[in-house]
Each structure stands twice: as C-alpha cells, then as structure tokens.
Model the fold of this input.
Amino acid sequence: MLPAPSSPNAGAPPERELERLMALRRYHILDTPPESAFDRITALAARLLRTPVAIVGFVDAERVWFKSHYGLAIDQVERAPGLCGSAVMSDGPYVVTDARNDPRTRDNPMVMQEDGVGFYAGVPLRTEDGFVLGTLCVLDYAPRQIDGEGLATLQALADLVVDQLELRVAARQVDALSRELLAVNERLRQQATHDDLTGLWNRRRVLEHLDQQLALARRQERCLAVLLIDLDRFKAVNDRHGHAAGDRALIEVARRLRAVCRAGEAVGRLGGEEFLAVFFGCNREQAVRAAERLRRTVADVAVELGDAGPTVALSISGGLALDDGTSAVETILRRADAALYRAKALGRNRIELDASLELAERT
Done:
C-alpha cells in the first residue's frame, strides 16, 4: 500500500524552525568533507531501491547541503519548496511519484530543468530530541512508485545516518574530554613543578634538577656551578609598600632572571626572596660571568610596584659555589650560602665566590 501524499502546505516554515536550525548547528556537519560512512549508505540506498540518485541532505536556512550525493555531481541546492525543503517539515516519509505534474514540486528548480527530477522519496533524519535535520532521499528522472517495504528500507538506512551523526557527536565529546584531561594534567604538572607566583621552577623541582645535573656533570667530568640568589632589602619593600608590591617585585625579578638564562642554565625559586641558578658545564670564569649577567639584569632597571605605585630600584646578591667532584648537594649549597652571606655583608648587589673555588676548578 502506498503512503498518503504529504500535505500541500508542507513548504510552510514550522514553528520550531529556529530551534531546528540551532540543533543542526550543534552537529557541526555542514560543509564537512565527504565521509565513507555516509557514502556507503547512499550507495546502498540507491542499489536497494534501484534509483540512480541517493542523497543525505541537511536543510539549512537557505540551502540544502548534501553530505553524500550518490549519482549527483552537485553538493548543494537552493532551499525551495517541493523536495527536501518540504520533506524536512513532514512528520514521516515524503513521496512524490510524478514530480513534473505534482503541484507541490512542479515549480522546483530541480524538477523544472531539462532531465529534471521525476520521482522523489525522502525520510526524515530525526534526532533523539525530535528535530529533523534533513533527509535521506532517493531520486529518479522518471515517475515511479515506491511501496511500504521500500520506505521501510529507506527509513532503516536513515536511522544509520542518524547513528553516524550521534557517533560524530560522541567522538567530539570524547576528544574534548581528552583535551580537557590533558589540560588538567598539564596544570597539575605545572603546579607540582612550578612556583605559583613567579612561574619559575619551585624548590622541589630546581633541587631535583640540581641533583640530576650534578650526577650528569660527574659522569661526563664536566663542571657545574650553583648560584644562590637573594633579593636585596626585600623585607623593606614589603614593609613599606605592602605584600602586593613585594609580589610584583618577585615576579619582575623572576622574569628578568629567566629572560637572560642561556643553554645549560636554569633558575628556580627556593622560597621567599631566595632563588637558585644552576650552571652546567661552566668553569670558574664562565660561572662568574653568568652570575654577573644575572645580577646586572636585575640591577639595571627600576621596577614599578603598581599601576600607579612607586618605582624602586631592585638588586640581588649572590653566592657562587663550584662542584668539587665529591661533595654532596647539601655541602655545595652550604658553601654557596656562606658566599651569599658575605655578599650581603659587603654591601649587597654583588656576587661573592665560595672560598674553596680555587681548589676545585675543573675544565
């Protein structure tokens, strides 16, 4: 038994057309490249229903865009009443057995053209929430009939199209979750290894780096130096201008230290106003030059401690110690700390060397 003809006023826009178009956008299907999953469905539809053309079409505001178009060279047409533009507004199958003589379709451009459409049968691509995004349709150039079994076959294939759409949505959701998970993991890694305020390596990470570099230097019989850095008169900045200004000072110092670090050099924040720089492969003279480079980059420029706040001149003091080939990390850091203490005592804004450097230099 043939289905009843669709209503003659099927071309009238439905009340929920705007919602339907929004639903179509959510699937991100328009203007996407061809996909074999959809092409297999249209090829199967044409073969099973013995038609020269089968289309997966999505009805946009002013066009019908073809995701897959078996037997047809074009990939979109103007949205016009009669074919897909009307089928998308039907509750069920939309069939035109003789398009040239049917009042619903005879003025449609695809029907009026030479060798135009003579037969059309389409079923809705209906989402789980009830929106019809488009149709799976078969076309012939001559009038013909379609029975209930043929429409059932077409609907089963249309359901496969909708399944593919939902799979694409699920795949995008999985991809979004994967990217979100990667971002969360990166934030956790950043929090575990970096100082929240300055963005430099935190105490744990910079000391871990020192351990690794020290072991590598000894295996390769290379030099390694450490520079313990302290921001001069930081307590006075905090006391006079407030902790927010102190934070700005720390951030600016960290930015400058990081900006002038070269290959083989690394810097981290130990805590408070104290930083640690590690120089890999540096002999004594090279380590001194590197330390002075860091000192100068802070001392050369005044820092604004607020948008309209005071400007202060900052400086750092540093204690430099070189690996002697046998000492533990703690011992090297103690020697650097002793040198830093001397730098503070001698007036600040200077680098002092570990007294044992002369005994330990290695090239």
The chain has two domains: 17-174, 203-360. The chain is about 45% helix and 20% strand. Confidence is low (pLDDT under 50) at residues 1-12, 358-363.
